[in-house]
Amino acid sequence: MKIFFASLITLVVSVKCDTIDWSAHQWQAPSPTDSRGPCPGLNTLANHGFLPRNGSNIIRETVRR
């Protein structure tokens, strides 16, 4: 059962990763005016441009994408 779920998760993640344009999501250090919080996961997403790089106006729909 564990192998089934691990295989399923691997399949879903690999299909989702193929649709991401990684060239548009290169790491950029936050500028002095950018806002960062205590959550390293959200900070990483903002530093890579998956969330607004300035750290402001993050809405639930943006996080779900």
Furnish the topology, listing elements before pairings.
Blueprint: H1 2-17, H2 40-47, H3 60-64
What does this structure look like?
The protein has helices at 2-17, 40-47, 60-64. 45% of the residues lie in helices and 0% in strands. The protein is an all-alpha fold and 65 residues long. The model has no long low-confidence stretch (mean pLDDT 76).
Helix content: 40-55%
Strand content is: under 5%
- Compute the separation of the termini in Å: 29 Å
Largest sheet: none
Quote the average pLDDT: 76
Q: Specify Rg, calculated over alpha carbons.
A: 15 Å
| Contiguous uncertain segments of 5+ residues | none
Can you count the beta strands?
A: 0
Q: In DSSP terms, counting alpha (H) and pi (I) runs of 4 or more, how many helices?
A: 3
Shape: elongated
Order of helices and strands: HHH
| Strand-pairing-aware structural class | mainly alpha
Quick take:
Helices cover 45% and strands 0% of the residues. It has 65 residues and is mainly alpha-helical.
